[in-house]
Amino acid sequence: MLPLKHQMRWRGGAVDRQAGGLRGVNRRVECKAWSGRSGVSERDCTLLEAAAKLSESASGVTQPHPNMACILVSPDGRTLAEAYQRAQGTTSAEVQAVSAAGPSARGATAYLNLESGDCHGEAAAVDALVRGGVSRVVVGLRHPLRHLRSRAIGMLRAAGVRVDVLADELAVGRNGLTSAAAAAAALAGGGGAGGGSDDDVAAAAAASYLAMSACLAANEALLHRAVLRRPLGVLKYAMTLDGKIATNMGHSAWVSSPQSRALVFEMRARSDAVIVGGNTVRRDNPRLTTRREGGHTPARIVMSRTLDLPEDANLWDVTLAPTIVLTQRGARTRFQAALRSSGVEVVEFDFLTPESVADYCQERGFLQCFWECGGTLAAPTIASGVVHKVMAFVAPKIIGGMRAPTPVGELGFVEMTQAVELVDTNWSQVGPDLMITGYMPSSGGLWALEATLEAADEETAADAAAATSVHLPAAAAPPPPASPTPGAAAAAAAAAASGKKAAAAADGSAGGPSIAAKRRRGPGGPQGRSVAFYKAWDQWGALSNFSPHPITMPVELPLPSASPATDGDAAEERAASGGATSSSGGGGAAAAAAGAAATRRWPSVEHYYQAHKFSGGHHPDAAAVMEAIAAAPSPEEAARIGRRTERTRPELLRRDWATAKVAFMQAALRAKFSTHAGPRAMLLATAGVTAAAAASNGVAPPEAAPPPPGGGGGDGGAVCYELVEASPHDYYWGAGYERTGQNKLGRLLMQVRDELLEEANAVACSADHAWQLNGPLAAQAAASAAAPASRG
Fold first, then answer.
1. Which residues form the CMP/dCMP-type deaminase domain (predicted)?
2. Residue 410's CB: how many other CB atoms inside 10 A?
3. Share of the chain above pLDDT 90, in %
4. Which residue(s) pair with 27 in the sheet?
5. N or C: which end of the chain has fewer CB within 10 A?
6. How many helices (H) and strands (E) does the chain have?
7. What is the pTM for the complete model shown?
């Protein structure tokens, strides 16, 4: 995305999906001359590059997430504060930096490698910059995710803050540019059109190229997910100088050097999952761990259609790391049961392919998958386009052997012209080995991905400029209105015809069931009227338990005696109402009485929930586990401690947890949405309630969620959307991969939403009732519900 004087062509930009082949597609790049005059100076570029590198400080330490950092610089050039976001659901870099700088932040410049947007529905980062008095913000990249893209920039500009975006300054057109061509253009400069010397212009262009490259590289996984709708797939292999990955007998330990293997362990830690096939499990019996204490532990995924796998494989030991087995429906059902009993997750597909695995990983919210498979599986992953990057090691060894395996199996090519060409390749020496990395045609490289996003900006620029709030989801175009039920249409007509009836509807006295009495639909709901949420950075992310919203809860009393665990929804509903156990965790009178004496602040709903698995004081070690969870620096780390302890030390689990857990979750959700305006406004938006309407009823302050553009009355009927936690692996709190789960979290959120609506004297929107509300907001919710949740 550096400006060029002339148009140029390049190959290998993308897969021609229409033709179903792997051949590269030629692209034409529209360019402009580099003038050297820009809102982003050479000094700015240097600081952006530093911010990009700082943002990767947590890579390998926590689960992959959008990498963000903030550097605050005073008007006289002093660095006031530096911060990066540690993990999903943690304090944003902007909030940390402004807090560290204190009053010195006033008049400062903030350098962000990525546009603010750590949680959809929360504007704490933008608020911190504005309230701190930051006068200028320099952004490397606009956020790749559509529901966050340009929102924070618009909010900052609306607040009077100057915002300069490097990606905008360097834009060269619709179709992308290889980094090699961009580097050549930058280093060549463009003459002294800006009034400076050729050397000055060239230096500025080179600095901008380096800064842009660093910003792109810091979030390469997020870019791939946003554009390609799949996690970044990295294929890794190590081969000898003659192209072998093992001997004729299958022995492969070790092809590469210890230095190369250390890099592989680091890449595993930077990934959400490590994927292998059945052949690798049978031949190598790997552990696929990161070989280090602490840090992120990726999931280990095994692909096997037949489940012809050894029963004593190292991967079945889930105390080291979680293991997921993906297979075809009906394969070795007894072995599946044995794996599940040992803690291995087993997922069945109608037909197991690399595409189905990549889609499954996308559903799980993964950003990066590390494919460490053999040649038999590597070939279809390349052919199907689920691999976007190659990380290959060449060892200075020769093994020979006509039947010795090679890194990639049969692709069906008969001519050298059919060979798959990589772009943006890099070569480096690692110990005695040579490491080569490059992007596949399925990716096209980071510059091409960013250009694709810029091209899409032209279609959504008007919406992005107008919708200056990140609190509510945006829709490019409202879908056709759903056909109302006869009862809903009648209620709407009656409300329009009679002021008295409309007033009665407003206070809920018009007759018919209230929202709380409404019978819930299953996950998905009729006519696709559902809103799905999962990761904090996904659309509707503020609904997630991992969102960065602390809660203050009563300190619970010790558990006086064991409570009998019963099965079924009835027991859980009794627990949720505080009547199932003597100490139901925040929902009952005992917890309320305890809260009158003492309270405790928890960093997130997930922290509170995971810790209280071990509450009650029935075991001396349980209190230490609770404290470890409370001190966890992120919700994901709190969840990891809680789940691992539940699996490895079940005696520490609260004795009535089977029934009490719903009450704990419900109490935490009530606290979160009662305390935080952003999530509350988002939750009410799923019922068609505008922020202005909510504020007028005392539910949310006006600044929490400004009404959509064109606010005011509308003739669109509002609909209460089904809330679905789209976790593909959780069939209790979530909907599960096949959407057959119980969706307990979604149901509890709908109950909390009902309570908030009743507090606001809003009318029920059950099958027989509807109200007239703001049309654009109803369209926004409908547009989101008509399609799967936006996850990049």
1. 42-164
2. 10
3. 53
4. 10
5. C
6. 26, 22
7. 0.77
Joined tokens for residue 285: 């019996």
Per-residue pLDDT of 290-343, as tens digits, reads 988 778 889 999 999 999 999 999 999 998 889 999 999 999 999 999 999 999
Please give the positions annotated as active site: 94
Residue 511 identity (one-letter amino acid)? G
DSSP code of residue 59: B
Dist CA 716 CA 772 (whole Å): 6
112: which DSSP letter? Answer: E
Tokens 């911190």 sit on residue: 128
In this structure, the number of other CB atoms found within 10 A of the CB of residue 192 comes to 14
Whole-angstrom distance, CA of residue 81 vs CA of residue 102: 9
Domains of the chain: 8-218 (3.40.140.10), 230-439 (3.40.430.10), 486-545+676-785 (no CATH), 551-657 (no CATH)
Q: Which segments of 498-621 does DSSP mark as H helices, in order?
A: 499-506, 569-576, 589-597, 605-611
SS (H, E, C) 321-376: CCEEEEEECCCCHHHHHHHHHCCCEEEEECCCCHHHHHHHHHHCCCCEEEECCCHH
| Residue pair 137/47 in contact by the 8 Å Cβ criterion | no
DSSP label at residue 614: G
Name residues whose C-beta falls within 8 Å of residue 24's C-beta, 6 or more positions apart in sequence: 11, 12, 13, 14, 421, 441
Token reading at 441: 């045609």
The confidence band for 36, taking pLDDT boundaries of 50, 70 and 90, is very low
Scanning the structure block, which residue is given the tokens 């897969």? 15
The 3-class secondary structure across 180-215, one letter per residue, is HHHHHHHHHCCCCCCCCCHHHHHHHHHHHHHHHHHH
Strand, coil or helix: 42: helix
Q: CA separation (Å) from 598 to 278, 595, 601, 612?
A: 54, 5, 10, 16
Q: Which of 665, 700, 462 is nearest to 553 (CA)?
A: 665
Please state, in angstroms and rounded to a whole number, the distance separating the CA atoms of residues 501 and 2: 62
CB neighbour class for 343 (10 Å; exposed up to 12, middle 13-18, buried from 19): middle
Tokens of 693: 């309407």
pLDDT higher than threshold 50 for residue 584? no
Q: Can you say how many angstroms the Cα of residue 34 is from the centroid of all Cα atoms in its chain? A: 36
Q: What is the pLDDT of residues 109-131, one digit of tens each?
A: 999 999 999 888 889 999 999 99
- Cα separation values, 105 from 40, 72, 110, Å: 20, 7, 9
3-state DSSP call for residue 766?
A: coil
Task: Read off the tokens for 555.
Answer: 């300190």
* Phi, psi dihedral angles at 730 (to 5 degrees): -110, 110
Residues 6+ positions from 87 with CB-CB distance below 8 Å: 58, 62, 63, 65, 633, 634, 635, 636, 637
